[in-house]
Structure formats: structure tokens, C-alpha cells
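Data deposition worksheet. Section B asks for the primary sequence of the deposited chain exactly as it was used as input, without tags or linkers unless they were present during the calculation. Section C holds the resulting structure in C-alpha cell form. Section D is free text for depositor observations; keep each observation to a single sentence. Incomplete worksheets are returned to the depositor.
Section A, Depositor: J.P.
Section B:
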Amino acid sequence: MNIKTQLNDSMKDAMKSGDEVRKRTVRMVLAAVKQAEVDKREELDDMAVMNIIQKEVKNRRESLEEARKANRDDLIADNEAEIKVLEAFLPKAMPEEELREIVQAAITETGASTMADMGRVMKIVMGKVAGRAPNDKISATVRELLQN
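Section C:
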């Protein structure tokens, strides 16, 4: 079952059970997916949908930080609940050690030695990681290992 189908099923379940947080969150993700499909004029594959979900999680985390700075307990609780709902659709997160090993192997494979080679390394790593780690974490790890 693809991720888009899982999202639709989850929204139906949330509507039946009255789970407002899950319904609202999944509906926002489905709207973002639909908008991306309209923009690209093609149906998105699971990887693209996963990227949209990761982007939504990132947005919620940024909102969470802002809510913490403003001492808004209501917004903190909402964002944490939405992040929890979204993470259910993402694959299990990759441990940092495994990510470092993949990045190191890609650096060795490409013969990269400077930051100018970052693009080649990222291309290989992104194919192997397949959405199991956030893009910003991947690029930070590549940058760190290339600078050492």
C-alpha cells in the first residue's frame, strides 16, 4: 500500500473516530501532496510524498521552537501532536552511526576531498538513505565529514 493511500485511509479513520488532530494534520498533508501534483502535472511517487511529509514535520518543529520561545503551551501541545501523527507515515529513523557510515562510504566511493565535491556525495547518499533521515541532517553530516 502506498503512502498516499495510507494517508487517505488514516483520514477516513480519523473522521470516523473523531480524532480532530489526526484529521486536521493528514488533511494538510494531503492538500500539500495534491498541490504538488497539480504543480508538476503528474502523480507523485512514494518518495516525493515522503519528502512532503518530512517537510511538514520540519515546519512543525520550527513552529514548536517558536511556540516554546513565546511560552505558548497550547501551540506546543498542538505541534507535538501533529509531529507524532506525521512521523507515523515516515520510515523508522536511521541511527546517526549508520548515516555516518553511509556518508563515509560515499566519500570514499567518489574520492571526494573538498566541499566542492559535496554535490556528488549527496547524490549517492540520498539514494541510499531513501527518506530515513532528514535532508538537513544528511547535509550536515556530509559537510562535517568533508571538512575533517
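Section D:
The CA atoms of residues 51 and 137 lie 14 Å apart.
The chain has two domains: 3-87, 96-147.
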